[in-house]
Structures are given as structure tokens and as C-alpha cells.
Amino acid sequence: MAHSICVAWLLLLVVIVMSDMTNGGVQGPIEGYNSLDEMMTTTASGSQSQQAMMLPTAPTVGYTHPKWMEPYFDPSTPRNVTALMGKSAYLSCRVRNLANKTVSWIRHRDIHILTVGSYTYTSDQRFQATHHQDTDDWTLQIKWAQKRDAGMYECQISTQPVRSYFVRLNVVVPTATILGGPDLHVDKGSTINLTCTVKFSPEPPAYIFWYHHEEVINYDSSRGGVSVITEKGDVTTSFLLIQNADLADSGKYSCAPSNADVASVRVHVLNGKYKPTTPTCPKHSTSNTLTP
Ligand SMILES: *[C@@H]1O[C@H](CO)[C@@H](O)[C@H](O)[C@H]1NC(C)=O
Ligand SMILES: *[C@@H]1O[C@H](CO)[C@@H](O)[C@H](O)[C@H]1NC(C)=O
Ligand SMILES: *[C@@H]1O[C@H](CO)[C@@H](O)[C@H](O)[C@H]1NC(C)=O
């Protein structure tokens, strides 16, 4: 008696779940599928097990899209992009399960819609969105990137409510730096070795000039012992070597690449008699000396 009441109660429950499903009751994987699993294990040994087994193939009248099928951003999409000034910048937005939704790119500085799908919405034709089917990527290309293009960009999916992914764009310019600056201490009679690096340069600088005070250093001057070695690459490095440093070699030195701002250091040539006898003086710990 008690057993048949229990079976009847379970049957009722199955019917409730089924009618709930046919009314579009599946809201997501958690509620919908977990309760199905429970029902199946509960009813595994009974005449109603057949009915329960039918549940997964229940009719999908009024079926609503489960949440896990909705579009989402691939979390591996870079959030911080660095581009070279004057070159193209590429911002990725990888969207899974996009289905019939649309991906838009919005510039945050002025809340300007740049692209909608593959259509460029702004009159600035430097902006273009390209869809790569194989990677689910909606790439925003910004041609001839400028300093003012730097900032936050929003990739938006037209869900209700919308979903957003933010990407920061940095625009860099070629930068020159002299290592060990701003002050270098060299002993009289040793070799002054100045190292200038040029970074973020799309191509190596056509030339690098060195200046002492405000005058271009002449490598063939009567002073002699002056040489420059330049190694071009992703990072271009130029070494200025001045042998047998004299007090007159003190002063400001500048490195002026063809495509970057000038970098400067101040060189102090120290007369031997002030040379520290112990290595405790912090001023000299960064010195760039070479014994001749
Ligand atoms: C983004 O990248 C730039 C350039 O590589 C870097 O200077 C900056 O610290 C980075 N910002 C964040 C939040 O990671
Ligand atoms: C997208 O597809 C869903 C069903 O999958 C439909 O209900 C909706 O109207 C469609 N939206 C657009 C904008 O086509
Ligand atoms: C000059 O200094 C740089 C950086 O410290 C070093 O790599 C280079 O070998 C030095 N050149 C000479 C000739 O000593």
C-alpha cells in the first residue's frame, strides 16, 4: 500500500517535470539537467523508468536557449595591447557561441561606436573590424595609430543586457635611452663607454648622432681615440667609446637617433687624486670605467 503511494507520487513528479519542460521551463543547465538526473536515479527500479528515460528527448516546444549556449568572451583575449605609432593596431575580441548576435567596438574616450559587425560605423575610415571564422575573432584594426588613439576600447555583444569586454590600447613611439644616466663617473685615463638604446622603433633608425655639449662628435677629430659601434635590430644599440678620458671630456653627451627624441647624460671625469681608495663611496659604484 505504502509502496504504491510512493510510486504514484513519483509518477506525478515526472509529469510535473515534463509539463514544466514543454512549457519552456528549462532555464539553464543547473536547474534543468540536475533535476533530470535526480529523477532518473530515483526511478531507476520501477515501471515508470521507461517514462523517465524519455525525458532527455522530450519535445522542445517553447524551448528557450540555455544560458550556457549564450555568447561569451574567450577569457584569453588580451586586455592590454601595445601598438607602434604610425602602424596598425589590432584589438582582438574572441566571442564563442555568437549565433545571430552582433559584435560592436566602442571607443570609451567619447563613447563612439566604431564598428557594428563588419560594418564601420564611424566616418574615420582608419577603423575596421574583421571577422576570423576559425578563431571566432572580431579584430578591430586601427590604421596609422596615433597617440590620441590610446585608451580603453569596449567589445560589446548585442545580448539583452549587453555583454562587454574591455581592451586597453597603448601607442608607443621610438624611445632613446642612455644606460647608467643621468650621471656617469669615469676616472681620468680610462675609457668612457656610453650605451644608447633605441626601443619601440618599427625599423632601425637610419642614423644615430652623438653630441658632446651641443656639438656633433667628430670621430676623425685630432683628439683621436673616439669610436662608435652601432648594432641595428629590434632594439638598436649604439656604443660611444672615448679612450684615455681627460677632464675636458666631461659634460653633457647626447644620443640623437633619426626617429626618436634625444637622450642625454652628464659625464664626470674624475681626476686621479680624488679617486676613492675604498669601494664604499656610493657615487662611484655606478661608474662606467674601464682600466686602460
Ligand atoms: C600594459 O602594457 C604596457 C606596455 O607594455 C605596460 O607599460 C603597462 O604596464 C601594461 N598595463 C597593464 C595594466 O598591464
Ligand atoms: C536570434 O535567434 C533567436 C532564436 O535562436 C530568435 O528568437 C531571435 O529573434 C533572433 N534574433 C535576431 C536579431 O535575429
Ligand atoms: C660598453 O658597455 C656596454 C654596456 O655596459 C658593454 O656591453 C660593452 O661591451 C662595453 N664596450 C666596451 C668596448 O667596453
From TrEMBL:
One of its GO terms (cellular component) is neuron projection membrane. InterPro entries: Ig-like_dom (IPR007110), Ig-like_dom_sf (IPR036179), Ig-like_fold (IPR013783), Ig_I-set (IPR013098), Ig_sub (IPR003599), Ig_sub2 (IPR003598), Ig_V-set (IPR013106), Zig-8 (IPR037448). SMART domains: IG (SM00409), IGc2 (SM00408), IGv (SM00406). The keyword Signal applies. Residues 1-19 form the signal peptide. Pfam families: I-set, Ig_3. Residues 71-158, 174-266 form the Ig-like domain. PANTHER family: DEFECTIVE PROBOSCIS EXTENSION RESPONSE 10, ISOFORM A-RELATED, DEFECTIVE PROBOSCIS EXTENSION RESPONSE DPR -RELATED. This is Ig-like domain-containing protein. Gene3D superfamilies: Immunoglobulins. Keywords: Signal. It comes from the Eukaryota. The gene is Dwil\GK17458. One of its GO terms (biological process) is synapse organization.
